[in-house]
Design brief:
The complex is a heterodimer.
Chain A: E1 6-8, E2 11-13, E3 17-19, H1 28-37, E4 41-47, E5 62-66, E6 72-77, H2 86-99, E7 104-109, H3 115-126, E8 132-136, H4 150-153, H5 156-169, E9 174-177, H6 186-195, E10 199-202, E11 206-208, E12 211-213, E13 218-220, E14 230-233, H7 238-250, E15 259-262, H8 268-276, E16 281-284, H9 286-291, H10 296-310, E17 338-342, H11 352-360, E18 365-367, E19 373-375, H12 385-389, E20 396-400, E21 406-407, E22 412-413, H13 428-433
Parallel strand pairs in A: 3-4, 3-16, 4-7, 7-8, 8-9, 9-10, 10-15, 15-16
Antiparallel strand pairs in A: 1-2, 5-6, 6-14, 11-14, 12-13, 17-20, 18-19, 21-22
Helix pairs in contact in A: 3-5, 5-6, 8-10
Chain B: H1 17-23, H2 33-41, H3 50-54, H4 61-69, H5 73-83, H6 87-93, H7 100-103, H8 105-110, H9 116-129, E1 144-148, H10 152-163, E2 167-172, H11 180-183, H12 194-203, E3 208-212, H13 222-228, E4 231-234, E5 240-241, E6 254-256, H14 257-266, E7 278-283, H15 286-298, E8 302-306, H16 318-326, E9 330-332, E10 335-341, E11 348-357, E12 360-371, E13 374-378, E14 381-382, E15 392-393, E16 396-397, E17 410-412, H17 424-443
Parallel strand pairs in B: 1-2, 1-4, 2-3, 4-17, 6-13, 7-8, 7-13, 8-9
Antiparallel strand pairs in B: 5-14, 10-11, 11-12, 15-16
Helix pairs in contact in B: 2-4, 2-9, 4-5, 4-9, 5-9, 6-9, 10-17, 14-15, 15-16
Classes of the chains: A alpha/beta, B alpha/beta.
Amino acid sequence: MADLTTEFLGIKSPNPFWLASAPPTDKEYNVRRAFEAGWGGVVWKTLGSEGPPVVNVNGPRYGAIWGADRRLLGLNNIELITDRSLETNLEEITRVKKDYPDRAVIVSIMVPCEEQAWKDILPRVEATGADGIELNFGCPHGMAERGMGSAVGQVPEYIQMVTEWCKQYYSKPVIVKLTPNITDIRYPARAAKTGGADAVSLINTINSITSVNLDSMAPEPTIGGKGTHGGYCGPAVKPIALNMVAEIARCPQTHGMPISAIGGVTTWKDAAEFIAMGAGNVQVCTAAMTYGFKVVQEMITGLSAWMDEKGHSSIQDFMGSAVPNVTDWQYLDLNYVTKAKISQDDCIKCGRCFAACEDTSHQAIEMSEDRVFTVKDDECVACNLCVNVCPIEGCITMEEVPAGEIDLRTGEVVSADHGDWTTHPNNPSVTAAE
Amino acid sequence: MAQGHQASGIQAGRLAASDIAENFADLHPAYETHEAMVAADRCYFCHDAPCMTACPTSIDIPQFIREIQGGHPESAARTILDQNILGGMCARVCPTETLCEQVCVREVAEGKPVEIGRLQRYATDALMACGVHPFDRAEPTGKRIAVVGAGPAGLSAAHRLAMLGHDVELFEGQPKAGGLNEFGIAAYKSTNDFAAAEVDWLLQIGGITVTYGKTLGGDLNLEQLKSDYDAVFLSIGLGGVNALRAEGEDLAGVADAVDFIAKLRQSDDLSTLPVGRDVVVIGGGMTAVDAAVQSKLLGAENVTIAYRRDQSAMGASRFEQDLAATKGVKLMFNVMPKAVLGTNSAEEVELERTEIKEGRVTGTGETLRLKADQVFKAIGQTLEGQPEAVELSGGKIKVDAQGKTSVSGVWAGGDCASGGEDLTVTAVAEGRDAAMDIHQSLMG
């Protein structure tokens, strides 16, 4: 079996699956259960400054989006940072780390954007023996209104400033957790790097309102007739997270910076994809909150089996392997021509490809009287919509038109050479350059 | 004296009342909301959906399933009832396995269709539970139409005509409306007196007066109806039953399956309903299966369906055959009745093996005997009491595609009329279409 041992910022854990800073890591009780279930590490639920802790609402904290069989696809929360005292948390962290020296214990922190606040808390966190800290610059609700969380994460200068304080007053690794509620994720990532961060973790939750109750006309979750935006997470956000991870991994200024990826990791495959996209490990929350801590066991066996199959002996073997293949649209090969092909043996004749293509795309699928569906190569632009709406996996495939053959849609011979927008005659910039 | 299964002769109370109640529970229980959502999610929303084409009433099935997905089953019901006013009963009794569900692309692909029938029931039950009738009548037309026979075709025609603003006089020979929905069909397909409840709900449209105990050839005659009304719709069903034409047919213990089923449907206490220990049902259609299965569920020890052709020719669908087999009914093929034997009442049935020669059933000369203290005849029904004036075709009232008979001003539909299978859903379609044609011809 492949070795899943991971070393992230020099912090060892038996596998790359950490629990993200969130309700599952709020207490010693939960964290011990998580470690017993097999989690490689935890990022302890965010600590605030000394003094009276924050208070949470006493109504619902979560909202959700479900599939038909009530499979939870997206979760939204309005919970704040830990509402237990700093002292209690620090004592618990100390005990847990002592009992589980082989697991990663990272402490998430969010205190006001003042040097003294950080100077006060960091030595106390260091004294717990925890392996590192994560700066919560991502939380989009509640704390942001008080000038913390995503209010910091949305201002690169603040990120850099606070990161510098942390590197100054804390000796172990500093991870900066980024908010996705920003136009270009590379700016805060660069600021973290400039500030001296050892790594970034992303994404935190996305501003969201999951639904509106059409009887009370209030957003859900509703507390006393009112609602507020929360942070969205779970399987639904994975594509957004994957893109942001890729952006940081391929940006020349941040390339190579360790990334702890977060966002909808539900099975081993999600984790493998994030690691291939440059992450050094992954953090999980919603899957655990949906299914309990045992869910990590499939992640471990699945990732390990896949690595064996591919001949990878460690995470390092495929980490970042997909990054070089992420490019800008302008560099995509316009001479790569494909056509959809419907396997008549697999087709169940539902006609969804036809409806999709005829109504919303390129009228490139023909339907016969007896419901035989075929692709018109002279109309097919290879958009792939039919593949995506077909209920039978593998029934419709995209077949490459080899170089030298004629693309029946354009009437032109397919070129063997790479040709992209940067050199295309329709590109005004190319014309201008001539 | 032996009790239960082993009691000889035709006896009541072969099983405890609680067992009988369990046996006659809903064959396909109603969906809970969550089940319905999961079942609805399996629908692919096919383009030009095959299920819709296969439905004799052309219900827009993808549309109503999508309405269930959207959480508004009452709209789904409206989509169903627009096309088929007896959508609630059809959801229960349609042989969906040979109609919509047979052609469902998921049946073709994986042998597991979207459960359209049960979804239809979910939707129609939801609407009926609201206690409202979703259709309004158009402005009165002043036209009066006689509908003879309050079975599915008659009810369908009457409702559509009333909706279009006509006044309908609905005549029924039985003391209750519903036709085979009420008197035929296995009890486990229409529980909780659903047929009667559906009729009450349907009549809420208004404009329909029901007169019971009147039959054509009895108190009614076509000439009078024609002169009293602007149009006449005949939906008199098939009142006669084919004879065995076998020796011993008159012995006690030999009965018509349809009478047994009707008695069963009307019984208030099934534990008082007598059934034989060894029951033989002659026939191969739905009636044969309904009679056989229900005999078994009442506690008959041995129940055999004896059918003269092979399995593939059986009128009952494969699903119905499997249901019968699951309930412990023995299916015999290629046998025809020669005689019912017994001193005072039926004791045995003598069957002859058959083969098909040039499409015709022919005896091979080889015979066998089955113990039988009760024999049910389920070899088809025949038209009875039809007016002489109307032309027949294949033993039924001849109609065109719109339901017009050979007599001007007279339409017909349902089992009594030519064209279409003898199914509730077909009868509903014929009643509806004839009503539209009547409306067209009266209003121009």
